[in-house]
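dumping this here so i dont lose it
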């Protein structure tokens, strides 16, 4: 029997992954500022610091572009490049990660379900529409449009208020320690850390559950809540 009355999910990296042509978007970013491309997307990703900053996607990517430009001895506006890349990305081009659709369906059999994403509705709604999440879930919260995002409690409070479920009876599933696991703890929920890499360290955080894939989500729903790997 599911011990949780509500199961909330993160979106990017947890339920879905991009399928769009990143190279085309990367080249379009350079075209938008009128300069010849240098480097490649993979090199840019390697120069970024950890997961995306939901409060400043432009600045997060601009840091990588600044480092990449230095390596290639090119004078460019990294903020303009970052803005161009974000504008060129097709946010609707996403697909479920393995096990995600089944995890949502299984959770919905015995619990209320919801989505809490740190992105704004203007960027995330196309993903929600592509994956038909508004029909699959009971509530959707776009924390990017709230005064406080994860890891603050407000987005979780909004979702649980809509579901009429107490935090102690809910669990949140996400792939970020500092936003998802920390946010769930702050709001009083149990947490599932969807580990992006089997060798990734928990960095001192203490998720209730640690999974390497949503294919193992049944473990969370069917057991008593003891921490598991």
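and the seq i came up w/
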């Amino acid at each position: 029997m599911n011990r949780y009355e509500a199961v909330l999910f993160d979106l990017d990296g947890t339920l879905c992954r991009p399928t769009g042509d990143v190279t085309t978007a990367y080249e379009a970013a350079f075209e938008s500022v009128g300069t010849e491309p240098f480097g490649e997307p993979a090199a840019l990703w390697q120069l970024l610091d950890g997961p995306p900053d939901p409060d400043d996607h432009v600045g997060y990517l601009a840091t990588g572009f600044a480092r990449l430009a230095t390596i290639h001895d090119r004078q460019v506006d990294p903020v303009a490049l970052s803005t161009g890349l974000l504008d060129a990305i097709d946010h609707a081009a996403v697909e479920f990660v393995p096990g995600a659709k089944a995890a949502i369906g299984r959770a919905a059999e015995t619990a209320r379900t919801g989505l809490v994403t740190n992105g704004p509705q203007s960027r995330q709604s196309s993903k929600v529409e592509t994956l038909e999440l508004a029909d699959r879930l009971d509530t959707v919260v776009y924390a990017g449009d709230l005064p406080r995002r994860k890891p603050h409690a407000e987005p979780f409070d909004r979702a649980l208020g809509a579901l009429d479920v107490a935090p102690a009876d809910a669990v949140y599933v996400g792939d970020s320690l500092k936003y998802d696991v920390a946010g769930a703890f702050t709001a009083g929920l149990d947490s599932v850390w969807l580990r992006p890499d089997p060798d990734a360290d928990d960095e001192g955080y203490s998720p209730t559950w640690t999974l390497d894939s949503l294919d193992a989500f049944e473990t969370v729903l069917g057991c008593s809540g003891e921490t598991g790997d």
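The radius of gyration is 18 Å.
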